[in-house]
Amino acid sequence: MLISPAYAQAAAGGGGDIFIQLLPLILIFVVFYFLLIRPQQKRMKEHRSMLEALRRGDRIVTGGGIIGTITKAGDQELKVKIADGVEVEVMRGTVTNVVSKTEPAANDTQKSKSDAPAEGDKKGGFGGLFGKK
Length: 133
What we know:
Elements: H1 15-52, E1 59-62, E2 67-73, E3 77-83, E4 86-91, E5 95-100, H2 105-115, H3 127-130
Antiparallel strand pairs: 1-2, 1-5, 2-3, 3-4
């Protein structure tokens, strides 16, 4: 024979070899989890809680870019005033951002008390800035 037969080499212990081959795939998954999956889940959770907290009087932006004030809030639908005499119904899920939130009724009384000037404050003077005389 002109060509000698080729014999397969004996395979070395394959236990550690499989782990070495899977290590890059595992590392890629870990990187994807921390850079893509986890932040996206956090963002979705924040958006869901923002949608649940919507109430009448909030100024919102919809997915289409319409800015308006909520006049009536239902389970899935919102009535939004976008101009004088113009109200549209939008789905709650299309709200992308809350521009300004209204305070709850219980906090309005506390807020008005805290906005009142203190005993020693007088209107029109600089007593608070430079000390009292």
